[in-house]
Amino acid sequence: MAIDNQATKVITGKVRLSYAHIFEPQSIDGGEEKYSTAILIPKSDKETLRKIQAAVNAAKELGKSKWGGKIPANCKTPLRDGDEERPDDEAYAGHYFLNATSNYKPGIAKPIGKGPDGKTKFQEITDTTEVYSGCYARVSLNFYPFDAKGNRGVAAGLNNVVKVQDGDFLGGRSSVNDDFANEDFDVDVDGEEEDFLS
């Protein structure tokens, strides 16, 4: 059965990034350095979850040629239940999550409006503080079969990230407003000045 690359590709709805290492590659558990992020998908986003399941199934079909002609009984899949696997992590409550990686730096951008052709235009994000663990994005993923050291399954490849909304930092990092909103500072604030943090 021939499967084209589009069958294993997914553009998510609005998801939240966690453990985002998308500007610089990182080594996880002493392994090869890769770009990576965990993606938190709300359980209410049935459409994204449906697309991921279809892409995982397509990748399993592709994997048959690696796996001796059939899908292994213990085939690993990338989507996991945050309520079951991270019961103590509030950010994962009510979400499924997966880890996506790439050997190459993903495209990182934000939408800036529509062009004359009606298509969305994007601006590349180079400021490493603008996309972080806790912000919201739409992500382009590609699912592919693997066979490594006896482990067989489907993994998620990270293609591109489009930031769509700020969110609270994950991982204990707080914002300036969180830290200092209730502190007194000896400064004169002109009522006409814009609050640069708002």
TrEMBL record:
It holds the Pfam family Enc34_ssDNA-bd. It comes from the Bacteria. This is DUF2815 family protein. InterPro entries: Enc34_ssDNA-bd, NA-bd_OB-fold.
